[in-house]
From TrEMBL:
PANTHER family: CALCIUM-TRANSPORTING ATPASE, CATION TRANSPORTING ATPASE
Name by which UniProt lists this protein: Calcium-transporting ATPase
PROSITE patterns, per database record: ATPASE_E1_E2 (PS00154)
Gene3D superfamilies registered for this protein in UniProt: 1.20.5.170, Calcium-transporting ATPase, cytoplasmic domain N (3.40.1110.10), Calcium-transporting ATPase, cytoplasmic transduction domain A (2.70.150.10), Calcium-transporting ATPase, transmembrane domain (1.20.1110.10), HAD superfamily/HAD-like (3.40.50.1000)
Transmembrane segments: 184-209, 221-240, 372-396, 429-452, 992-1012, 1024-1045
Catalytic activity: Ca(2+)(in) + ATP + H2O = Ca(2+)(out) + ADP + phosphate + H(+)
Amino acid sequence: MTSPFKPSPGRRRGGDLESGRIENADSDSDTFSIPAKNASVERLQQWRKAALVLNASRRFRYTLDLKKEQEAQEMRKKIRTHAHALLAANRFIDMGRDQGGGKPIASATPAGDFGIGPEQLVLMSKDHNIASLLQYGGAQGLADLLKTNTEKGISGDDEDLLNRKNIYGSNTYPRKKGKGFLRFLWDACHDLTLIILMVAAVASLALGIKTEGIKEGWYDGGSIAFAVILVIVVTAVSDYKQSLQFQNLNDEKRNIHLEVIRGGRRVEVSIYDLVVGDVIPLNIGNQVPADGVLIAGHSLALDESSMTGESKIVNKDANKDPFLMSGCKVADGNGVMLVTGVGVNTEWGLLMASISEDNDEETPLQVRLNGVATFIGSIGLFVAACVLVILLVRYFTGHTEDVGGGPQFVKGKTKIGHVVDDVIKVVTVAVTIVVVAVPEGLPLAVTLTLAYSMRKMMADKALVRRLSACETMGSATTICSDKTGTLTLNQMTVVESYAGGKKTDSQQLPATITSLCVEGIAQNTTGSIYVPEGGGDLEFSGSPTEKAILGWGVKLGMNFETARSQSSILHAFPFSSEKKRGGVAVKTADGEVRIHWKGASEIVLACCRSYIDEDGNVAPMTEEKEQYFKNGIEEMAGRTLRCVALAFRTYEPEKVPTGEELSNWVLPEDDLILLAIVGIKDPCRPGVRDSVQLCQNAGVKVRMVTGDNVQTARAIALECGILTSDADASEPNLIEGKSFRALTDAGRDKISERISVMGRSSPNDKLLLVQSLRRRGHVVAVTGDGTNDAPALHEADIGLAMGIAGTEVAKESSDIIILDDNFASVVKVVRWGRSVYANIQKFIQFQLTVNVAALIINVVAAISSGDVPLTAVQLLWVNLIMDTLGALALATEPPTDHLMGRPPVGRKEPLITNIMWRNLLIQAIYQVSVLLVLNFRGISILGLQHEVPAHATRVKNTIIFNAFVLCQAFNEFNARKPDEKNIFKGVIKNRLFMGIIVITLVLQVIIVEFLGKFASTTKLNWKQWLICVAIGVISWPLALVGKFIPVPKTPLSSKLSVLKFWGKKKSSGEGSL
């Protein structure tokens, strides 16, 4: 079996002893190693088969259920096949109807206050029946039946919403209930070792009652049974609480918020609050939240792969193919839809109700800890088997002594009942050693710390979509961040403008420019303006850039509704992050056709052949004038302003395509006339400079990747501290997207690590940068908000989508959603990622110390005297402290600033570092030495020679047990700070840790002083208690002294790997001269 402590590939940044960095890497084919993303089923099955498991239902509780996942895939296929069959049948019926063979469609049947019933809506939507839709009057007629205004939506008052939900249903679907507490209790009972102990307890109980009577004979068996039940209950409670936390987080992930039009204004609502009749604007990256029909759209195309399984993009048309399916994504264009079906009345609702959504997944750290558990468990099983054999051999050969000093077994004289009882006790001890030695709770400690971290990260404005991202974020070596909304506030305002051939303000513009700008702003936008009926401030909706330009239009005197009514849109080219511009063709009341463009200033300017001068006349764009505008753009960009240009051109009405050709019309973008260039201010977020500096100090390089002008990006980067001086602002530190794009893969790899800022980048440039950095060995985190960012988010080790500005497509491709779009929250995620890894290491150090000490003490005692000082009940109590309470105490430590003072931890670095080996060996050697001395010389050292031998032995064993437990309690403080000298720093703030320590100590006192019959202990006097406490307290100064002992930089595991590799070569003859 491969060692679980091997180092593996990953970015190495030497010098951090805690992370045990080394230069040589391990193979990625290690059994207990899976990729953080997109692991194959074969890899997932491989480690399961290799893991030593004594309680599969518990060990695999928080891993992906491969069988259930396969069933879900089959269910998806069935529903998709059903959708295909319906569409095919519908096409066949349409063909028959066209030939005159169709049967008449039933007219709309009223339901309640509405003109059409839910059954007819569902049938029409599922069958995609255009004939039915046309009979109801198309989208407009259907809206009238549903009492909806296609422009203003439904009224949205509580009574109307309730009425619609009662008749048409709500946008929810029945979910399969999660496992209840009793199921967790049942799963915990399946532990093979605990089952053996329960059988032994029952047998011991029966023999004890038979030989000693019910009054005294039930203690041995009863105490073991009680201890086992306690372990089962505590385990089930812990697992159940974690399950509830994950359920709450899953509910949060599913709760999508979107804009709907109600009462004439755009309002944000939860997807669960949608009702039939709602009017929903759709833009690129949105998810279609319910079944519906298209009211109007421009170049609208959907990705229906989530429903049909086919990855092709489907174009939607309000006349020919208006039906929209819930769960699909908007791939291009924009539109407005009318909701006709919600919840289980949609194909998506049926799909979600049919499959289980446990969202379990195994993380790389979880799998590696399964490897550690297998490694330790194998040793534990071997040791337990040795103890069993030794104790049985000593017993049946007469070398095991009873309390009187004579042989416990004499052939032919000892009663069979006593022999069976003694053998049961021996087996019980051996099995209990297995319980302590096989750390089933080790992989679950990852789940515990992840559940805790995910809950706390929600408070820090980060929603984790994939568990593995928590771990991976701690290994991040670089963050490729957007500018707008992440490093800046995303609160945009137009503060400067160039129009009429000069720098100007809105009051000085000629009437010609004003009217054309107003027309372009009102029509070439995905935003809107709501005017409250009772007066008050205007309400702007749309992206921050759209809202800023709409606000500038209002300053020009624009009345949004009036401006839109004076012309009609013929065709639209939605804004593209590839082309950096968007356009619209409009037809005025007098029949004139104009094409308006809006986009990146220098790109639009390059398409302009003329401009409107200060007199309102069209003037040619001379080289001098073009340079004047370019200088103006650079001057504004140098002051961190985002520059956007507005331009237009006229077009001959007779050349405008008609019919199907219109939907495929490529709007002309040459010979444009420049209207205006506006400078939009988007201030940096407060504290972003400190956050960037914190990342740089932690060994995480922050890179800005933005679609903005290079000069704007440079100015913001200097303000944020990404660039430290003007001297840094040169290639390749500062590079334009097209320059990077033009390089070969080798050329990109050569400069990618030096890039700090990339301006005018396309989403594909971001993807190329991510791929290059990953090839260079970096662990890359990427922020993104647009649909086109999805490939980069998916490709990155950690994809961070923006919760406010992000599209649903971006969020679906991400691993973590930053709910407040703030870079400071990204830094908090890094802290939590490092905390996950650090907390697991603390728990491993603590648990291995207990493992080593308990095993050595019992084995040495068994070999030398034929008896063990720690009984089955005592070991079960130690197991409870170690597995559940220890994990709760150490796996829930909050992150500290110390974590950000060292380089990133490689994802596949050895879990047990040299510092941890040093700490645990010092503590284990100390505990073993002291307790073995007490075991063999305790009676004389403690002054118990004059006591009755049986009582003296019981006192000695009680002190050994008590001192051992107190050592673990005090050692938990040491485990909190493996590489810091002040182990008490922040301990009072961690109430859970202090609470568990107090509970452990109180229960220990109760066990020793009041439960002697159960735990095989006896009451201790105050001097004996002081001795036990002193033995435990010595672990503190011992740990402090140990931290002055230097450790080698090369991990112990790598030396073992080298020896193992050399041995293989030697045996194969390769190492010979």
